[in-house]
Amino acid sequence: MKILTPILLAVFMCCTSANAQKLYLGGDISLLPSYEKAGVTYCDAKGNPVKPLDFFKEEGWNAIRVRLFVEPDKASAEHKGEGVCQDLNYVARLGQRIKEAGYHFMLDFHYSDTWADPGKQFMPDRWKNVPVQALPDSVYEYTKQTLRYMNEMGATPDLIQVGNEITNGMMWPVAKLTPLGNENWDVLVQLLESGAKACREVCPMAKIIIHTEKAGDWIATKAYYNHLQGLDYDIIGLSYYPMWHRAVGVLAATLDSLAVDFPGKEVMIVETAAYYSHENDRWAKGEEQYGEFYPISVEGQRIFTHELVAELRRHSNVTGLFWWFPEENGSKENSVTDGWLNRGLFDNHTGKVLPAMQELRKFIER
Question: Is residue 54 included in any domain, yes or no?
Answer without folding.
Answer: yes
